[in-house]
Design a protein that fits this description.
With 262 residues, the protein is an alpha+beta fold. Helices cover 27% and strands 18% of the residues. It has helices at residues 20-34, 48-51, 68-72, 78-95, 155-163, 169-178, 180-189; strands at residues 13-17, 60-61, 66-67, 99-101, 106-110, 136-141, 150-152, 191-192, 199-203, 209-211, 219-228.
């Protein structure tokens, strides 16, 4: 990663000790109650698929791999955002450098027995979808699971695998969508991220990764992307429907201020 994580690691991924997972878990439960996704007495997120009021919300849209519960969490309230900014301030203290950050956190929900579960695995790099290579990806779980089901390939093996497709990300994604053998190859190269409620995981966006289908339990997680101010390069636009602009104040992009400025 060429010092991308600075004083944390010289590698392309790292774990950082953190107590934020439980705080975000509690706030996510509050939002799920507020949005009437689950009844107020339900707190066991690992079994959210059993308690959800509208069972169709666990099913994935095949193209995006996103289900209805995840979509219901796209917009959170001011209390949740205050927690998010406190988390980022703490991360700033730990990392020791200023960064731009994703306007809102992405809260992902994966449940067993969902329709279109065969969307996964789908190996990809965020850079395939227009994200800047200067970013740092942050991932952490909100649930206590035996297995995370989140698989990551180190940057060296990611590059070697992509090179076999002449660095053609569109061809790579096409194979990821259509070939079970292709994804089995990814499984053989990847490691599974730890399921720790007391750690967050940071990794290079060039690392190819995927979610895996849930079998027995539900998993909720948060992912966030930050971009060091000193490394920032303008001009990156997302390849998705929203055409996110990865710049301060950009459309569906970064917050208008860096974390140091808040």
């Amino acid at each position: 990663m060429k010092n991308k994580i600075y004083n944390i690691s010289q590698k392309d991924h790292a774990y950082i000790k953190s107590d934020w997972s439980i705080k975000f878990r509690n706030e996510t439960i509050r939002i799920l109650h507020k949005n009437k996704i689950i009844n107020n007495e339900v707190t066991e997120l690992e079994k959210i698929h059993e308690y959800i009021n509208d069972k169709s919300l666990i099913d994935y849209d095949f193209e995006s791999g996103v289900n209805g519960i995840t979509k219901s969490l796209y917009e959170v309230d001011n209390k949740y955002m205050l927690l998010y900014h406190k988390f980022l301030k703490d991360l700033y203290d730990k990392l020791g450098f200023d960064f731009y950050f994703q306007e809102s956190p992405t809260i992902r929900v994966h449940c067993p027995n969902a329709k279109n579960q065969h969307h996964y695995p789908r190996y990809h790099s965020d850079c395939f979808y227009g994200h800047p290579p200067q970013e740092i990806n942050i991932w952490f779980t909100l649930t206590s699971n035996k297995n995370s089901g989140f698989y990551v390939i180190d940057s060296n093996n990611s590059k070697k695998w992509l090179d076999k497709y002449n660095s053609d990300s569109k061809l790579f994604i096409e194979n990821a969508i259509n070939s079970k053998e292709f994804n089995n190859k990814g499984d053989s190269l990847a490691f599974e991220v730890e399921t720790n409620l007391d750690k967050i995981f940071l990794f290079d966006p060039l690392c190819i990764h995927t979610n895996q289908p849930r079998i027995n339990d539900s998993r909720l997680s948060i992912d966030v992307r930050i971009n060091p101010v000193e490394n920032f390069v303008d001009g990156y636009v997302g390849a998705g429907r929203m055409k996110a602009e990865f710049k301060p104040g950009g459309y569906f992009g970064y917050h208008k201020q860096s974390i140091k400025e808040i």
